[in-house]
Structure formats: structure tokens, C-alpha cells
């Protein structure tokens, strides 16, 4: 796809009175005349085409004095696109601009100039046009010497050549890559051309104070390449580059002239296509340091990517294994490498392997202590690298594949260290010595994953994401890596082929540390894991419970390293190595006594608020009303400083609609909704845009906004920067793609933009979760504020204090009294005039959409009254019999009477049963979720787990008392060996009895039961130990994970996976 000026243009009225026959028309022709070809060839050669390039044919399309969609008079644009290609398949495109007077229309906020392939993956966005200054720069700029004329090569991986032009931005590709680093990025269209003798290129990643530097490679005068460093938990990073001339003094990071790229780079939770296996025990959760270990990778991805970038075969490509370790500053450097045999032909297998031994001398300078010992460890990433050495004897990295991060223990500490630990138990730092607050004060866990998912304080644990959990293994990442590469490279027959991966030794993440869990979340030092049919909280360590950690795992590199040293390494030693060599579970019991899983006692349930259709609102405190507003409104607003105790009057003053927003001095988080008719003539409005202001995000000066787009459905902007979501290998309707901004804000989006329902979820740094579902341009938003906003928020969603009576508090502090209302229509009108309209944004400096003031999202477009719309309070009727039948089919299945009535109202107001039936169904589904997550789990009298020991062949029963006013449903969530059953022949509704049938096979057998009242479930668990016959008694049962049984006492070192 080639976009010379991507915006909405309407040429349907080109022959209207007053226009010439050539105005407002699109003209096209094939060019083959020598004169035209000579002109085109001269232009592309001026832009960098080889002087022997000889275009043999082409095509010209001209947009002459065209006008904007739905604007039939006024501003006009004229531009021309020329395609030129030679007999050898090399092609160029020429963009020529003569007149530019508009870039936005009724349906487009900006114009885009760019090129990409049919999948929208390869290519470049050359320029985003969002101001008069941008248009003037295009008309005056050039990379051909002709003002307003630009040429780019579009063959050979879309390398857009040209440099030295200030009329467009330097571009970055790709815009995302794995968090362990190693992505080869390309920076094109440099504003200053590079000389042949340019000595060094450097790239800088990160923000001030946390920059990471890598050396780059000069590809051509207008293109450089760099390799991304590991993320260090800064998921969104600014990318800059600098040129160091050969005759200059030594390169200096501070004094160098850095060029910042407009597009940020996003670190994503991509698959890790390199897997490392212990050479002695393939099932072990650690690797033997000082011993041979096996590294597996997918050669098709590695060499295919390298071959494509090089534009040649694989015969000159060098492959090696690198071991990288971080310095104290967090910069990863290569500490050891291993050159692999070179290849002369493309790979023929889906999987390749090699052995490597990490040497003590390699990591000697990277060591730090762990646990309460004086022993040391290091952190490493294992990476496959494909590269060449060019004619200048300079190395060019072409592609890489990286492993997850691992910890290495030097071999000298192994045997003596292990025996020393036997004398002192588990070498675990006590809770009293952990940083921050007392570990007992760490936050409790939500009772279910549904609660955790709706609570902005809890984020998915990247090492164990629900519901993937223990279902996938490391081998799957290698298969995904291969299939995804082939997808975006047209199933290149040289590198793409069918094949299977041996998964007999399947190694999965949750199964190592939380065997039995389907996924985990984190909130600071609290880790909560979930499983079972209802996603209930796991509290039994033997069945996959989370831990109460000494260090937070995902806050910063320093905290993460502390987590590995004080939480992960002791766990592997105490709950893995010692039990596996027959030394008992006492050390593991000690570990969990100090890192005891958090329960749900003291947890405050989230209270979401939501909106659907012709805005039907539900507040955090449960009040439901309809507000037929049009314009931009304050949906939610509250101070973020939880140390103060402002009055509601103070909060109203801070959040009043006339207050200036997006300023450094503001200390309030706000959510604004924009309501407008979906189509001309509609009797109601819908949510068409949302935005969030958070003082903890970029000093509160830039809002995060979600705005409809006719192609991508919903665009997400950080200020005026359009965010790019990482591609994913499997784009089904349930798969999401996720980015983490530098402020800590996370945004996930449905990966498949063709899904029936698109969902985008934003969690802001101050603790506001905003979820937006989109159907045909209609948004269904919901927000869940963190507990810090309880009693401290105002807006259309009311005062968040548990009292729905004050939710209709206006912006001037009066609470609406509806007792005099005699009908629903009268109630809706009172709500409109006495409450809703008081939260209308009435001036542009109070808007959260200030970055779009020159587009169709401008403030004037949403200032009240919106042209052509008058609110209706009497419920419209459906007189068309066919529409009535369609409405009944769309709304009849909604159980809630009030939501069903809202569905009929919306269809009557719009005449669209398909869209608004779906929207109402989303509202009803959200209401169900709200009811579920706002409840508490059933009360279990006594502990949540019980143990028993029986003789071979004996059976037993274990009883739990569960109190709840609602009927309870119990379901076996785990049943080892099929030996457990629920006894349903009991008269007491509060008694849950688990029956163990018995077996003659000694061992430990586990079961868990999910008990729910239709809301948040509670998980109860049992463990039955079947004893050995007296004459055969031996051995000690292993704790938790089945992946530790073969660990060897003769290990000379340990390499431990970084997960917990």
C-alpha cells in the first residue's frame, strides 16, 4: 500500500456547477513516452537511485484540487504519485505536492504519508501531517532538489532512500521487539546524510538518567542500524542516534549531538525463541554451571531474517552464541561467545542445537551475593547472533534470537555451599530485613482472577500470564517464532517448512514455581496465583500458590535483581534441590513460612463503573441513569495525592469543568468522555472518544486518548503521538498485544482488528483502569478506580464512597433530588439539566483532547450544542414492524429488565438493531462482571487446606464448612489420579465433603475444590499421603513441582531460571 496523502477525500461532486471539468477529480495514466520516463528517471536518481537505473515503464495518478469528505467547498489539495520500475524488478515511487490546504476531514484527524506491504507489517510511515506547518514543510522540502517532490525506492524490503530533507521525520522500523533485547532496528531518512568515511554510529535507548548505549552500523548514506539492549523494565523507550566522526576526540555520551526519533520503541512480551537445557537433567529447573548445557533455536528465523536484511544467501553469514551479563549500571555486555559452523545453504530442520559451558572466568566481574550466604551469582541472557564482516572489516549484526534471563552460580560454590545450607536450613533473608514496608503489610490478593483483572493495582505476572499458565512450554515459543516469521515473509520456501518439535521434555514457566496455577498477577511484593474452572485464588503452596516476596519482581532492574537473589535462588535451593536429593521438605517449609502466600482477607473489592449505548451510566456505587448528552464531559476526576484529606468542596474545585487541564501544577487524575450522535438524524448519542489525564504520566502534560479510526478502528495517542502495538504471532479474537509506557501505564489491545469486538484496556500509573470495547465506531467504556480514590472522586460517575444517594452531585456541589419526578422521561430530563450538563467541558483549555485541536476531534466539534442534535427524553417508539422484530431478537435475551429497556430505547433512537443489540449485550455482560467482581468469596470456617495420611488401600473423608447466604456450587478443580470425589449426599448446605477412594500405590495425592455463590469463588484443597508399606518405606515426597526429581548431588554449579 502506498499512501501519498492518506485522509478522507470526496471526488463525487467534481462536476458540480462552478467547477471546471478537471477540478476535484482523480486522473490516472500509464507512462511509456521517452520524455516522461526521462523526467522520472532524473528525479529518482537525484534521490539516490543508481546512475545506471533505467525506468522502463510507469504509472501516474493525479489528485487535482480535491476537497475534503463532507466539506464541499473551501480548501483544496493537489498532489501526484508516480510509480517507476525497470526491467530488473527495482521500483521507485515519486510523491509530488503542488497545493496542500487541508489534512483533516469530518472522519480523519490527520493525513499520513507512508508505504507498507499488504499485511501492514513491512514498510515505513514517512510523515504524519497534523498542522499547517507540516503542510508547508512538505511543499517546501525535497530529497530530489525539486520543492515538494520526493522519491523512495519501494523494492528490496521497502528501503525508503533519501536523506538531508527536513520535510519528513527520520523513521524507525520495527517499532517493537522482545524485552530481552537483540532486535535489529533500522533508522531511515536521516536529516543529515552520512559520508562514506563516517567512523562510528551510536544509538541511545531510554530516558534521561537511565540511558543505554549501543554501537550502530552505517548501511548507507541515509540508513543506520542498531541492536536494542535488554529493556531493564522500561518498556517504552525513546530512541536517539549520534554520529562520531573519525577525526573527532573520543566519543562522549553527554556532549554528543543526539537526534531523537519521533517514534518510540516498545519492548513487548514476545516469545523467546532460544531455549537452554541442562545437559544432565532435561527436566530440571536449573542448569549446571561449569557443565555443558544444550542451546536450542529456530534456524529458519535467525538465518531467514539475516538473509532478507542482507539481500543475499546465507553462505557469508556468521552465526555465534553470545552470553551477555549486566554491569552494576544495568548495561548488558558480552562476556563469552561461541562461534558456530558456517552454512552454505538454508536450514532444512525446524530446530538446531549446540552445547555451551558458561565459564567462571566469564562471569567473575558480574557476581553478587544471594540469600543469607556469602556465595555469589550472576545474571545472563543467551543469544544467537547472525552477522557478517563487511569490506571495511566492520561487523554488521543482521538478526538475533534471545533466551529468557537466567541466573548463574559459579561452579566453585556448589558442593560446599549445598552442605553448608544443610546446617542452617533455608538460607533466606528474614522478612524483617526486606526493604520497604513490613512484608505482613504487603497487599492481600483478589479472590479471583476476574477481580484481579478488573483491579488496576494488579498486573499480569509476565512469567506466568493467565490463562496460559502451565499449558504452554518453552518449545512452543520456538514454533511460534518460526510460524510468525513465515507469516510476514510470505512463507519463503527456503526458510519455511512443516515440521514438529519434540515436546517430550516440555518445560513450562508456571509449572516450575507454581505447579497447578493457570496464571499469576503482581502488586509490588505480592504475587497472587489462580487456577480452577472459576480462576480462584491459590493459597496452598503445594498447588501453585503465589508468594509474599522480599523484593518486587517487575518494578526496576535493581529490584528485579534483588528478587532473583533473595526470593528465586533460595526457592530453587530449598524447594527444588534439597527435596530432590532426598533431604526432606523442612527447608521448603521454612521458605513458605517466611514467604507465606497472601490470602484475600482484607482485600477491598473493585467497584467498576460503566457506560453503554445512548449513554446509560452505572456509577461505582451502583446508581443507574441515562444521560443523553452531547459534547465532552468529566466522567471521573479525583486527586492523586493520597496523603491529604481534601473535602468534597476541595475536590469539586480541583475537578470543575472550567479548570485548566494538562498542566504540571495539576494533581488530579481525570477521565473524559465525548458523546455525539453516531449518524445524522439519530435521536441519541453514543461514546465516540475517551481520554485520561494522570499527573503521574509525563507530569500530567499529555493525555492518553482513544479515538475512532476508519481503518484501525481505534487509535491510541500519547499526547499527539500515535502509539504502535507490537504484532503478535496468533491474531485470534482473544489474543491481545500490549505495551508499557515509560510512566508505568500499560495498554493492551485486541490483536485482531477485524474481531467483532475490539477491546483496549489502559491502566494508568495512579491506578485507574479504563476498558473500552468498540463496535462499529461505538465505544462501551468502563473504569475501575483504585482504592486511593474512595471518597475522593466526582463527575458523571458520582462520588465514589459506597453511597449512591450522592452520586448525582453536580459540579457546583448540589445533589439532585429526583423525588418529584413522575416519569422516566422527567427523570432523564432532570438528570440532563440538573446534573449531567454541569460536567460539560466549556472551554478548550479544559479539554483532554487539546492535541487534536486542528482535526475533526477539535474542541469546536464537540462544544455544546452539537450542530443538528437536540436531546430527546421521551422514549422513542418503534413503528416499523420489521424493526420491532429485529429489536426483539437483539434485546429479548437480556435478562435485566432495565438493560433490556435501554436496548430497545437505543434501537428506536438509531434504527440499528445489529450494532446496538451488540452494544447492549456488552453492557449486560459488563453488568454481570461488575456483580461478580464486587462480591466477596464464600466464608470458609477454618483453614483453606487439610492434610491426611492413610495406609495403602484405605479411604478417608475431609470436611469443610462454608458459610454463605446464597446457594453454593462446588466443583472439583484438581483430582490426582481420579481418586477424589465430592460427596453430594449430605443434608447440610454449608458442608463440603471430599472423599478419597484410596489406592495401594504410595505417594502424595492432591485435590482442590472451587466453591462459588455465582460471584468470587474460594478454592479449598486437600493433600492425602498414602504411606509406604513398612518393609518398603523410603524416600521423601517432593514439594510442589514435578520438574525437580532428577537433580544430581554431584553438580558443580547451578544455572537458575529467573521466574518467580
- From the N-terminal CA to the C-terminal CA, the straight-line distance is 45 Å
Mean pLDDT: 82
Shape: globular
Give the spatial strand order of the biggest sheet.
36-35-34-47-46-45-44-43
SSE blueprint and pairings:
Elements: E1 2-6, E2 9-10, E3 25-31, H1 34-46, E4 57-68, E5 77-85, E6 91-99, E7 111-116, E8 123-129, H2 132-140, E9 149-153, E10 171-173, E11 176-178, E12 184-188, E13 200-205, E14 212-215, E15 217-220, E16 223-227, E17 236-237, E18 239-244, E19 259-260, E20 265-268, E21 274-278, E22 286-287, E23 293-297, H3 299-310, E24 318-326, E25 332-339, E26 352-356, H4 360-363, E27 368-369, E28 376-389, E29 395-409, H5 414-424, H6 449-454, E30 459-460, H7 474-488, H8 509-513, E31 519-523, E32 526-531, E33 536-537, H9 557-580, H10 586-594, E34 609-612, E35 616-618, E36 624-626, E37 631-639, H11 648-655, E38 668-676, E39 686-693, E40 704-709, E41 713-718, E42 721-722, E43 736-740, E44 746-750, E45 758-763, E46 768-775, E47 778-785, H12 824-834, H13 881-891, H14 897-910, H15 913-933, E48 939-941, E49 945-950, E50 956-963, E51 969-975, E52 980-982, E53 991-996, E54 1003-1012, E55 1018-1026, E56 1054-1057
Parallel strand pairs: 11-20, 49-55
Antiparallel strand pairs: 1-7, 2-4, 3-4, 4-5, 5-6, 6-9, 7-8, 10-12, 12-16, 13-14, 13-18, 15-16, 17-20, 18-19, 21-23, 22-56, 23-26, 24-25, 24-28, 27-28, 28-29, 29-56, 30-31, 31-32, 32-33, 34-35, 34-47, 35-36, 37-38, 38-39, 39-40, 40-41, 41-42, 43-44, 44-45, 45-46, 46-47, 48-50, 50-53, 51-54, ...
Helix pairs in contact: 3-7, 9-10, 13-14, 13-15, 14-15
Amino acid at each position: 500500500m502506498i499512501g501519498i496523502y492518506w485522509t478522507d477525500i470526496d471526488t463525487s461532486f467534481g462536476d458540480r456547477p462552478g467547477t471546471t471539468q478537471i477540478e476535484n477529480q482523480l486522473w490516472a495514466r500509464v507512462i511509456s513516452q521517452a520524455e516522461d520516463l526521462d523526467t522520472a528517471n532524473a528525479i529518482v536518481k537525484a534521490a539516490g537511485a543508481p546512475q545506471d537505473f533505467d525506468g522502463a515503464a510507469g504509472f501516474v495518478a493525479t489528485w487535482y484540487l480535491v476537497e475534503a469528505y463532507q466539506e464541499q467547498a473551501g480548501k483544496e489539495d493537489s498532489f501526484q504519485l508516480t510509480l517507476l520500475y525497470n526491467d530488473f524488478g527495482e521500483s521507485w515511487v515519486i510523491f509530488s505536492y503542488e497545493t496542500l490546504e487541508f489534512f483533516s476531514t469530518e472522519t480523519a484527524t490527520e493525513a499520513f504519508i507512508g508505504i507498507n506491504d499488504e499485511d501492514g507489517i513491512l514498510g515505513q510511515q514517512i510523515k504524519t501531517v497534523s498542522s499547517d506547518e507540516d503542510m508547508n514543510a512538505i511543499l517546501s522540502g525535497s530529497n530530489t532538489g525539486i520543492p515538494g517532490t520526493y522519491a523512495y525506492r519501494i523494492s528490496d524490503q521497502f528501503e525508503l532512500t533519501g536523506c538531508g530533507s527536513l520535510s519528513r521525520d527520520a523513521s524507525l522500523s520495527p517499532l517493537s521487539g522482545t524485552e530481552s533485547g537483540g532486535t535489529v532496528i533500522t533508522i531511515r531518512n536521516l536529516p543529515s546524510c552520512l559520508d562514506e568515511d563516517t567512523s562510528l554510529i551510536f544509538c541511545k535507548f531510554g530516558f534521561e538518567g537511565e540511558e543505554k548505549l549501543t554501537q550502530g552500523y552505517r548501511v548507507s548514506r541515509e540508513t543506520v542500524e542498531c541492536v536494542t539492549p535488554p529493556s531493564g523494565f522500561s518498556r517504552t523507550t525513546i530512541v536517539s542516534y549520534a554520529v562520531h566522526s573519525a577525526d573527532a576526540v573520543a566519543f562522549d555520551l553527554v556532549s554528543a549531538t543526539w537526534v531523537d526519533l519521533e517514534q518510540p520503541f516498545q519492548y513487548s512480551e514476545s516469545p523467546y525463541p532460544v531455549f537452554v537445557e541442562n545437559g544432565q537433567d532435561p527436566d530440571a529447573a536449573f542448569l549446571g554451571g561449569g557443565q555443558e548445557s544444550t542451546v536450542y533455536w529456530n534456524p529458519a528465523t535467525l538465518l531467514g531474517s539475516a538473509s532478507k536484511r542482507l539481500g543475499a544467501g546465507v553462505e557469508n553469514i556468521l552465526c555465534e552464541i553470545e552470553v551477555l551479563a549486566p554491569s552494576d549500571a544495568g548495561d548488558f555486555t558480552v562476556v563469552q561467545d561461541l562461534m558456530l559452523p558456517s552454512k552454505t545453504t538454508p536450514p532444512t530442520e525446524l530446530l538446531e542445537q549446540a552445547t555451551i559451558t558458561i565459564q567462571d572466568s566469564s562471569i567473575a566481574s558480574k557476581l553478587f551475593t544471594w540469600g543469607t550466604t556469602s556465595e555469589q551469582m550472576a545474571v545472563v541472557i543467551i543469544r544467537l547472533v547472525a552477522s557478517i564482516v563487511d569490506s571495511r572489516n566492520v561487523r554488521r549484526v543482521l538478526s538475533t534470537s534471545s533466551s529468557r534471563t537466567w541466573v548463574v552460580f559459579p561452579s566453585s560454590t556448589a558442593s560446599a555451599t549445598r552442605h553448608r545450607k544443610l546446617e542452617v536450613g533455608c538460607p533466606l533473608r528474614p522478612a524483617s530485613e526486606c526493604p520497604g514496608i513490613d512484608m505482613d503489610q504487603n497487599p492481600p490478593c483478589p479472590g479471583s482472577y476476574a477481580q484481579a483483572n478488573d483491579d488496576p493495582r494488579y498486573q499480569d505476572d509476565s512469567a506466568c500470564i493467565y490463562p496460559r499458565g502451565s499449558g504452554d512450554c518453552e518449545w512452543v515459543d520456538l514454533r511460534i517464532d518460526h510460524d510468525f516469521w513465515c507469516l510476514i515473509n510470505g512463507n519463503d520456501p527456503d526458510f519455511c517448512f512443516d515440521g514438529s518439535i519434540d515436546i517430550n521434555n516440555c518445560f513450562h514457566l508456571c509449572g516450575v514455581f507454581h505447579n497447578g496455577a493457570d496464571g499469576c498477577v503482581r502488586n509490588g511484593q505480592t504475587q497472587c496465583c489462580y487456577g480452577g474452572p472459576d480462576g480462584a485464588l491459590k493459597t496452598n503452596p503445594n498447588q501453585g500458590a503465589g508468594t509474599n516476596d522480599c523484593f518486587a519482581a517487575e518494578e526496576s532492574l535493581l529490584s528485579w535483581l534483588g528478587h532473583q537473589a533473595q526470593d528465586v535462588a533460595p526457592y530453587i535451593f530449598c524447594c527444588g534441590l534439597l527435596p530432590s536429593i532426598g533431604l526432606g521438605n523442612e527447608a521448603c517449609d521454612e521458605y513458605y513460612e517466611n514467604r507465606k502466600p497472601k490470602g484475600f482477607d482484607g482485600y477491598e473489592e473493585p467497584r467498576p463503573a460503566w457506560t453503554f449505548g445512548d449513554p446509560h451510566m452505572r456509577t461505582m456505587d451502583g446508581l443507574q441513569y441515562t444521560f443523553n448528552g452531547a459534547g465532552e464531559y468529566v466522567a471521573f476526576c479525583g486527586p492523586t495525592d493520597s496523603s491529604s484529606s481534601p473535602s468534597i468542596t476541595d475536590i469539586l474545585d480541583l475537578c470543575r469543568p472550567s479548570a485548566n487541564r494538562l498542566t504540571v501544577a495539576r494533581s488530579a487524575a481525570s477521565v473524559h468522555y465525548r458523546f455525539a450522535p453516531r449518524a445524522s438524524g439519530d435521536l441519541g448519542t453514543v461514546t465516540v472518544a475517551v481520554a485520561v489525564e494522570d499527573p503521574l504520566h509525563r507530569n500530567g502534560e499529555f493525555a492518553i486518548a482513544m479515538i475512532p479510526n476508519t481503518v484501525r478502528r481505534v487509535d491510541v495517542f500519547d499526547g499527539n503521538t500515535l502509539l504502535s502495538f507490537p504484532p503478535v504471532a496468533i491474531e485470534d479474537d482473544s489474543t491481545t498485544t500490549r505495551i508499557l509506557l515509560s510512566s508505568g501505564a500499560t495498554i493492551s489491545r485486541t490483536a485482531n482488528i477485524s474481531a467483532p469486538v475490539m477491546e483496549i484496556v489502559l491502566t494508568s500509573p495512579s491506578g485507574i483502569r479504563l476498558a473500552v470495547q468498540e463496535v462499529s465506531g461505538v465505544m462501551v467504556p468502563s473504569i475501575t478506580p483504585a482504592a486511593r480514590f474512595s471518597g475522593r472522586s466526582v463527575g458523571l460517575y458520582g462520588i465514589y464512597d459506597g453511597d449512591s444517594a450522592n452520586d448525582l452531585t453536580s459540579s457546583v456541589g448540589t445533589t439532585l433530588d429526583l423525588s418529584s419526578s413522575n416519569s422516566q422521561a422527567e427523570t432523564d430530563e432532570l438528570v440532563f439539566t440538573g446534573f449531567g450538563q454541569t460536567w460539560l467541558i466549556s472551554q478548550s483549555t479544559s479539554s483532554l483532547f487539546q492535541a487534536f485541536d486542528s482535526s475533526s476531534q477539535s474542541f469546536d466539534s464537540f462544544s455544546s450544542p452539537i450542530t443538528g442534535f437536540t436531546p430527546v427524553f421521551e422514549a422513542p417508539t418503534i413503528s416499523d414492524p420489521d424493526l420491532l422484530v429485529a429489536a426483539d431478537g437483539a434485546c429479548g435475551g437480556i435478562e435485566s429488565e432495565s438493560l433490556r429497556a435501554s436496548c430497545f430505547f437505543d434501537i428506536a433512537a438509531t434504527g440499528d438493531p445489529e450494532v446496538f443489540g451488540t452494544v447492549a449485550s456488552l453492557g449486560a455482560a459488563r453488568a454481570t462482571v461488575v456483580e461478580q467482581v464486587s462480591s466477596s468469596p464464600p466464608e470458609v470456617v477454618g483453614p483453606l487446606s487439610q492434610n491426611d495420611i492413610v495406609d495403602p488401600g484405605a479411604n478417608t473423608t475431609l470436611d469443610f464448612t462454608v458459610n454463605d447466604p446464597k446457594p453454593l456450587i462446588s466443583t472439583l478443580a484438581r483430582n490426582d489420579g481420579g481418586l477424589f470425589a465430592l460427596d453430594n449426599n449430605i443434608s447440610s448446605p454449608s458442608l463440603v465433603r471430599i472423599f478419597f477412594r484410596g489406592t495401594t500405590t504410595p505417594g502424595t495425592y492432591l485435590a482442590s475444590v472451587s466453591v462459588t455463590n455465582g460471584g468470587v469463588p474460594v478454592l479449598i484443597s486437600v493433600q492425602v499421603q498414602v504411606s509406604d508399606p513398612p518393609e518398603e518405606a523410603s524416600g521423601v515426597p517432593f514439594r510442589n513441582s514435578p520438574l525437580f526429581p532428577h537433580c544430581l548431588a554431584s553438580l558443580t554449579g547451578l544455572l537458575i531460571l529467573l521466574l518467580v
